[in-house]
Inverse folding.
């Protein structure tokens, strides 16, 4: 039986290490997808894109790259500028990313959609899975429910990222998370792994 294709929305290369390694073991063919428009500034987006490119070379599979359109992302979320990390702006940000991924999956007739976002111990996996299912359904694809931080997923991703020499960022990604020193990315200020939440 041939593997079922799944479009894997990748939030960053370190977070993709474990999902990309594990899903084929479950019988899935991973098609990685990069959104990126939430990342600020452009140099940072380029750095993260290059890290994913390096992972893609290692995994022997090309990435579906989306166009970098930070202005459109900022315009969509600017009314939520004062929200704290983990608040309404982040919910909308997840939705924008997952909706773009669902649109791409549908256009490419990839029947399944999933995301690496649930590997972070600091992100709401239940919310992410609910939003993912909503976006997938809107575009006629199925959502693959996963919480990748389970079974030591986050710690494994830190170990693999170090082994592969992948760039690991110090803030979640957007202008707001950068300027407020926010860090929901599972790293300490020096980029070391934080304790994993239950
Ligand atoms: S902190 Fe992260 S999840 Fe929240 S809006 Fe910024 S980039 Fe998106």
């Amino acid at each position: 039986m041939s593997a079922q294709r799944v479009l894997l929305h990748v939030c960053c290369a370190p977070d993709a290490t474990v999902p990309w390694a594990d899903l084929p073991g479950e019988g899935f063919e991973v098609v990685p997808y990069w959104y990126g428009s939430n990342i600020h500034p452009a140099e940072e987006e380029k750095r993260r894109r290059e890290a994913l490119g390096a992972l893609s070379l290692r995994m022997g599979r090309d990435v579906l790259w989306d166009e970098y359109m930070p202005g459109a992302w900022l315009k969509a979320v600017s009314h939520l500028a004062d929200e704290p990390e983990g608040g309404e702006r982040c919910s909308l940000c997840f939705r924008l990313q997952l909706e773009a991924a669902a649109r791409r999956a549908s256009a490419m007739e990839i029947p399944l959609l999933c995301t690496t976002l649930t590997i972070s111990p600091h992100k709401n996996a239940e919310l992410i899975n609910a939003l993912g299912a909503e976006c997938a359904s809107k575009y006629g694809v199925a959502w693959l429910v996963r919480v990748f931080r389970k079974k030591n997923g986050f710690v494994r991703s830190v170990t693999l990222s170090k082994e592969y020499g992948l760039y690991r960022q110090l803030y979640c990604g957007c202008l707001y998370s950068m300027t407020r020193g926010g860090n929901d990315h599972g790293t300490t200020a020096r980029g070391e792994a934080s304790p994993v939440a239950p």
Notes: The two ends are 36 Å apart (CA to CA). Residues 4-179 form a domain with the Rossmann fold fold (CATH 3.40.50.620). The beta strands are 4-10, 28-34, 64-65, 112-115, 142-143.
